[in-house]
Every structure is written in structure tokens, then in C-alpha cells.
Amino acid sequence: MSARADIAAGAPDWAAVRTDFPVLEREVHGKPLVYLDSANTGQKPRAVIDTVDAFFRRHNANVSRAVHTLGTEATEAYEGARAKLARFVNVRPDDLVLTSGTTMAINLVAYSWALPRLGPGDVVLVTHMEHHANIVPWQLVAQRTGATVRALEVTDSGELDLDAARAALTPEVKLFAFTHVSNVLGTVNPVRALCREAARRGIVTLVDGSQALPHRQVDIAALGCDFYAFTGHKMCGPTGTGALWARREHLEAMPPFFGGGEMIREVAFEQTVFNDPPHKFEAGTPNIAGHIGLGAAVDYLSGLGMDHVEAREAELRAHAVEALDGIDGLRVLGRAPEAAAVISFLVEGAHAHDLATLLDLEGVAVRSGHHCAHPLMKRFGVAATCRMSLAFYNTHAEIERFAAAVHKVRGLLA
Asked: Which residues are in the Aminotransferase class V domain (predicted)?
């Protein structure tokens, strides 16, 4: 039984919620773990772990291929997870393609939607704050079609300028692909406004929601985008899970990306008749247990209430920014007014990798490197940063331990 509180009773008991996550009970280098790398992957509550375990112990079978009891149970649980995800983001289950994550979802759009449609002179517009997964697929398609990938600049505070975006949405732009929340800066982009401007010009939009869904309520139907991609492992679910939502007209017009079993209606040597979306894009045996686990993660997050999650993380982020601002020689990258609980920073005289390694010896887990965002690092004139990323299961005491560890490590590296 989870320690979560009923939404109707108000905000959850966050201390009790924390006990739902077994990994947070462990020690690292003889010190209690302070896990500040949730933007990399989120930790898993017992509800998810137990669901995956129960599937393998009691229900393991392939989906949509057998009429025996286990096959029926597996199929119902798998499709039930799709329905849960659809409700979570306010879309129809039939418009939600289950994928291995955001990377696969974006590649699906690149090869099934963009490749047949782009040609010389066409432009895919991205931004300087994109993850490589929202840059490289478009470059690969551009090389094959003669199209061009163009990037929208970000301001010194780490934001997109709406006037600059409007000016960049020129007639040759066929697709505008951008992140909902930056995985480096935490910047929350004005998705509705950007999609509205693109739609006025007949430009298709794709939104990378990897860092949004775990931390805030997302109503895809209200955003006005054409495609929305997200990853399960960042939202308390297993790795190798995620989904692509697309407008129905796109799903029906797009050819399949992968070919194989399940995505067909009839196969003959003369031709193949494909299944209806979303199954048309789901060839082969899927990550059944993983997506059933993701369904359990959705249940867990829904039980907490995403409004409570967002408020809790905003409170923790404010504390973290205040703590970091009190450390001499420390620079925070980006200062967008609306930001999620992701903070990238540098310490004068310390390499990001050295800083992260020494913080690990204090039991503090942060990520160091370019965070799969080379163009953004170049934009800010740095090779790498340390990134601390919070989730609702973190505590104010952990932020104090983190700040004390940074003080200590800075002294060692000075």
C-alpha cells in the first residue's frame, strides 16, 4: 500500500511519499544517498516495481497473438496502460503510439512524416536548447532530402524570444520542433503560443515533452501541436518506454517506420495491407512489462496529483537556487522566470566532471557533461556543466546537504 495521500485531502505527506522509493534508502560511500539526477532518469516507486514483478511472475505472455488466458491478461494490461497514458495527457488512446521513448518517437516522425514530404529548400526549425534527439534525426533526414536544419537562438537568460520565433517561422519552414522544458536550463517554453504562431503559417509542430510530463500537468489536446513525444523512465516508469501522440490525419497519412508482425492486417507477396494506427507503427513484440509498469507509474503520479507535484518541485527549486546563489564563484546557467526544477551550474576553477566525482564521494548524485546538448553549451561558451535536477521525492534537508557538499568540494578544488 502506497503512502500517498488522497488529492481531496490536500497535498500529500511528502515524507511518507519518499518511503515509496526503495533506492532512496541506500548509502553511497558510507553516506545517505542524495539523488539529484531525476532529469536523467526518475526513480521508481514500489508500485511500479511490484507491477513489473507481478507481470513476469503471473501474467507473462505476448500481446495480441494468443487467445489463452495469459495472452488475454497480458493484452488487456498492455492496452490498459495505453488508455491510462491517454487519459493522463488528455488524448484518445487510438492516437497514441507506444514507443521505446522520445528518441524513437521523434525518429518515427522524421522517417514517416518528414522524409516523404521534405525537399530542397525546405527547413526544419529547431532551437539552441534542444536535446540531440531533437536535432540529429532532422539532420539525417535533411541529408537525404536536401532540406536544411535551422536553429532559433535563445536569450542570455535561457529563453526563446517570441518575436524572434515569429520572424523565424518563414514560408520555407515545414516543421518546427522544440522542447517543452529544457533538460539543461529548466526553461519552460510557451508551447501554446509557439504552436499557435506556427499553425497560423501552416507549419507543423513537434514538441519534445520528456522533461515536462514528469513534473507538471500536460494537456496535449490544449497545446495545439501536431506531434508530442515523451519518455516513460523520467516519469517513474521503466526504461525503454514512452509514446508519440499525433493528430489523426498525420497517423493515417504516414507510412510505417518499421515493418514486421502486429503492424499488418494482411500480408501477401504482392502487397501488404497495414493495420490501423496506432498499431501500424508498432511492429514486433513491444516492451510489454515496461509499458504495464509505466501504466502503474501514471496511476502513482495521478494519485499524487500533478498540481501538487509541480508546486512541491517549485518550492524545492526556489530553495536550491537560493542555496546555490550563496556560494562564491558559482554560476547558474540560465535564469528563465518560468523554469522546472533543473539547474545547471559551474564552479570557478573546477571542471564539471571533477566536481561531480567529488560530490559523489559525499553521497550526492548530480550529472556532469554536455547533457546531450552540444549546441546549447557552445551558445553559453562552456564545455560542460554540473546539473542538479529535483523531483517531488527530494527534501529540503537534501538541498542543504547538497549545498554543504558543494562548499566543501569547492574548497578542495580551489
From this structure: 34-402
Rounded to 10 degrees, what is the CA torsion of 118, 120, 121, 122?
10
Cell of 264: 499488418
pLDDT 10s digits, 337-357: 999 999 999 999 899 999 999
* Confidence (pLDDT) at 1: 32
Taking the complete model, does pTM exceed 0.90, yes or no? Answer: yes
For helices 136-145 and 102-109, angle between their N-to-C axes, nearest 10 degrees: 20
SS3 category, 219: coil
* pLDDT at res. 131: 98
pLDDT bucket at 358, cuts 50 / 70 / 90: very high
- Asked if pLDDT for residue 3 goes beyond 60, the answer is no
242-246 and 227-231 as β-strands: parallel, antiparallel, unpaired? antiparallel
DSSP symbols for 249-292: HHHHHSPPSS-SSSSEEEE-SS-EEEPPTTGGG--S---HHHHH
State the chain's mean pLDDT as an integer.
95
Contact 350, 384 (CB under 8 A): no
> Given this model, what pLDDT does residue 414 score?
66
d(CA 45, CA 53): 13
372 in active site:
yes
Specify the pairing of strand 330-333 against strand 367-369: unpaired
Sheet bearing 385-389, strands edge to edge: 330-333, 342-347, 385-389, 367-369
Bridge-based pairing state of the strands 385-389 and 367-369:
antiparallel
CA proximity to 327, closest of 397, 269, 414: 414
Catalytic residue (choose from 195, 225, 236, 372): 372
Residue type, 241: T
Q: In whole angstroms, what is the distance from residue 204 CA to residue 216 CA? A: 24
